[in-house]
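Ligand: PBG. Inputs:
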Amino acid sequence: MRTTPALRRLVAQTRVCPADLVLPVFVREGIDAPTPIASMPGVVQHTRDSLRQAAHEATEAGVGGLMLFGVPTPEHKDAEGSWGTRADGILNLALEDLRADLGDATVLMSDLCLDEFTDHGHCGVLDDQGRVDNDATLQRYADMAVVQARAGAHVVGPSGMMDGQVAVVRAALDGAGFQDVGVLAYTAKYASAYYGPFREAVGSSLQGDRKTYQQDPANATESLRELRLDLAEGADLVMVKPALPYLDVLRQVADLADVPVAAYQVSGEYAQIEAAAAQGWLERDRTVLESLTAIRRAGAQVVLTYYAVHAARLLGR
Ligand code: PBG
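Predicted complex:
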């Protein structure tokens, strides 16, 4: 059953289709040309205009959706992340642009988190001792969900790992008449070194780490508890992140979830492949497709990947 390409194709258990892939994109306020991200060769911080072009191309390539991250100017960062909940904040303006251009032709997802908008770089607001205040943050997320839905998000992606975030976001959306806006829960999100390049991509202000709210890489069982809670709170999709170093967690989550499961091939996973490929140490395209196949095989129906458009074109050939 391995002798010819046609036989192998016939018996392949796992396929990757462009429609399974979601492209994460960065839109930065206050720049007039796309800006390269050094640690993610080939990925840029977009202007509003270049993002519109990129979103159009991704949709043409058959990619399943886009996940938007906003990068405000330093003047638009403060302790509460106020510009995350303003209609004229960069992320919400970009959502409006893309929804106006593309309507329902693709799935527009938005990162629902404060870290890009806070001057301290944490995913929530802080208490008087400088610790992330879970419950005060939930109110900010509720507001953010409604603003993003109003701006045109089909799906919001609460990524801050606050306890109770899915329930609060669901209730806020329903209360504002956005029953149809979905919630992609970052269910198992680990405090990972693999997010390193992303911090450059969003111009993160973070000092320290996120170990008090993101999960310990040593633990798998607690992901099942996170899953149970997210499903009970109304998650429409659940996600594991990072992807390749956590395929065991992904498999366990996929075995139990009764909603679609996503995985996020994060910035560091991308950077590893790019760095090795640039040295001629790995074949880029084969490695990209093999990594995406492995993530799908481990149980992800949807994969967020910076390679979404590139892979879609490879697959389309
Ligand atoms: C936080 C967020 C992060 C990523 C997505 N959302 C960074 C973090 O948790 O520190 C990382 C994505 C990547 O590395 O590609 N809003």
